[in-house]
Each structure stands twice: as structure tokens, then as C-alpha cells.
Amino acid sequence: MHGPRLTFLGGVNEIGGNKILLEDRDDRLLFDFGPSFSPRREEFYINFLQPRSTSPVKDLLEFDLLPRVEGLYSEEALHRSDLAYQPPRVHGLFVSHAHMDHAGHLGLVDPTIPVFVPDSTRRLLDAIESCGSQKYGDHDWRRLEDGKGVKVGGVEVVPLPVDHSIPSAYGFLIHTSEGTVVYTGDFRMHGPRAAATHEFVRRAAEEAPEVLVMEGTRAGPDPRRNFSEEGVRSGIDDILGKTELPALVSCYPRDVDRLTTLYRAARLAQRDFVIPLKTAHLLSSIQADLPRDAPVPGRSEGLKVYHRSKKVYYKWERPFLDDAIDAEYIRHHGRDVLLSLDLPHFAELIDLRPPKGSPFIHSMSEPFSEDDVDDHVLSNWIEHFGLRKQQMHASGHCSGPELHEVTRTISPRGVIPVHTEHADAFAGGGAPVRPPVKGVPMAIRT
Questions:
Q1: Spelled out in words, what is the top-level CATH class assigned to the domain 229-391?
Q2: Is the pLDDT of residue 371 over 60?
Q3: Cα 116 from chain centroid (whole Å)
Q4: What is the pTM of this model?
Q5: Who contacts 368 (Cβ-Cβ below 8 Å, separation ≥6)?
Q6: Which of the listed CATH numbers 3.60.15.10, 3.10.590.10, 1.10.3720.10, 3.40.50.10190 matches domain 5-221+396-443?
Q7: Per-residue pLDDT band at 1 (split at 50, 70, 90)
Q8: How many CA atoms lie less than 13 Å away from 424 in the CB half-sphere?
Q9: Do residues 253 and 342 make contact, with C-beta atoms less than 8 angstroms apart?
Q10: Given this model, what pLDDT does residue 366 score?
């Protein structure tokens, strides 16, 4: 095969797990490197049954949950694997954003391979690593700046911000020896930074790209409403305005847009917004990258931190303990708070004892199926305590019609669906659809 080629090592017919290898002459670049949300992983690894830390690559290769790529993995990660260590044969790894399914396997990568991220993403990765089990490893970190091209060999990569449900999400314009490849990363058109996505689409259209590699999480059948962040805010305002009972909410702790929405809604309802210790740590760690109206402990009026009763607190938790509140405070001041409570911490309800009928706002994605395990457990807790569940969420991904609109605007010579279970749904966008086959190289030009 002559000319630049793309090999999709993950994200094919599945949600998440993007691992896109670009080869152009002697240059080999990788875009994103994370695990997928494929049910296949849960056929072998779930909850406390996980790949062994002493042989992670070996254990993941056993079930084809990791690509067999020479010159990519660190010698330590390859311990006991039948894939022999080789000096790096990948010249750069570009991370579109800090979600697990795009960055979660960085810890397996050879530390001498340059990893390109903006400073803001690096700070977020550091914050995530400092307060959990996720490890990204030591790397030759290289800085990306908005709109500024980076040359790796003969390939130039231009990072441009897009709107997504996590700070510092990027798409890329990739200039190869035979034209431009556009990679969207994960993106949406209906969030607070929609203008950034529209600018990315405009710049991509100017390139007249050979191919558009586009995520399609919500392509195909999608029963979810396409709420905007303003729509979520309006719904939460309505809920809080109609109750004097304690109000609880679950949301993604790294979705700063949602946390900001909840904080503003709480303040309008004359309530304090109460967040867990881990959320407080993340917000404090990246506060330099956040807008002034984002909630930050010690900076934002009406923001409190909730601490669970524990025998030992981690070092990163301790700075917040002096001013933190507990279950007893919530029991006595419940009508004055909006409490963020994640599913792993639902045991706190036993101490909180919210009155029956208290609203519980589920501000996360709806389950993809009725037998979703977490949703089943969540329902049991809500029923036991007599809470009133309300669904209020704005997706971090484009709807099907929005994906078609983006394709028509950019007008590529071809579109390659990734991060989707419904590649066939891309056919309505007006560009020839080129479904990838996992592990099989495809030329950027047809």
C-alpha cells in the first residue's frame, strides 16, 4: 500500500477505545490510547477482577483487548508477555482529551515516546492520578497550543479545541504527504463551548480533507433527548423551586460544565452546593484552567465539601477536612443544600436519612439497556429510601442529525466512523462512508 494509511486498533464497532495509527512514509503517529467500553472486556474483567499489575499487556492480549503493536509498550508493561520489547517505533502519541477511553492505557506506553497534550490536560491527568488508582506513567510530555501546528517528521498536527463533557478536549487537523486527515476526538455542538466546535468545523472545511475520522457515539437509534446545558439548568431550577426537601444529585466528577450548572442552580435556589472530597480535589487542582464562575473550594461562595466518616484520610483529602460538613449537618440543614452524591458513596444515605419524596437528580447518561447493573443497584437504593428520581443530562456527544450536519459542512472525500456501534448511520451525511476494519490499514485516498 502506497501513501499515508490509517489503522484503527480500537474504537471499531464499539464505544470508546480509540487507538488510531497513522503511518506516512517513515513516520508513525498514534491518536488516543484507551480501553473501550465494549461488553467484551466485561466478559473477562469486571469489578475487582482486573488484569494483573505485574503483567498488564500479557493479560489484555490474551483476550484481544489490546493491540499487538511492536515498539509501543514499555519493557515493564510487557513483563512475561510473548510480545518482545523493542525500542519505540511510534514517534508521537496525541491525546484528544482525558477521558479513560482515550487516555487510560497511557501507563502501558514506552516512556520515551513523546506524548502530546496541552498543559491543561496534563494538569487534569495529574489530578486524576493523584486521587485514584489510575496511573498514566512517566512520559516525554510535549506541549500542545491551540491552533499551533506541531511537526513530527513529515507530518504536521494542528490541535483545535472542541466542546465536550470534560475540560480541554481537542480535535486535530493532520497534514500528511497526500492531504489532510481531520480527527474530531469526542465532541458536541450543544454545550457551553459550542462556538469552539463550530470554529473547528469551519477550519476543517477549509482544509478540503481527504478523510474525516469522526466519533459517532449517538449515531443510530438514540432515545435520549438532546438537552443543552441550558435545558438541564432550566429543569434543575424547576425541581429546586418546587421543593423544600433536601435535594441530591449524581453527575460525572470531571464534567466541570455540569458542576457549574448545579452550582448556579443551587445558588439561585438559595442553597449551598455540596461536593465530595474527590471533586473538591479535582476542581482545586485545575482551577487555573477554569472560568471564574466555575465552583472552586475556597473561592466560590456557597460551595461546601462533604466528608464521609473514615478511619484514615488520604493526603489529598486532608486540606478540605477542617471546613467540611458531614451527614449530621445535612440532616439538620437538608433544605438548604444540593448534595452531590455518587453511586459508590450511596451508603451515606443510611446516615443522611433524606425524607421520602426528596428529589434525586440523575445528571448522567441514561443506561444503554434495561439490565444495566449500576442502574439496577441505583434503583434499589432510590426505592428503599423513597427518593423521587429525575433525569437531567446533556450528552457530551453530537446527536445523529448533528453528525450529518458536520459531515455536510466539512465535505470530506470520505468519512470514517469511529467510537460507534452504528457506522451505517453515517450514510446520511452526504460523504462516502468508509467503515474501518480493526487492525487493517486503509489508505487515506481511495
A1: alpha beta
A2: no
A3: 17
A4: 0.94
A5: none
A6: 3.60.15.10
A7: low
A8: 2
A9: yes
A10: 63
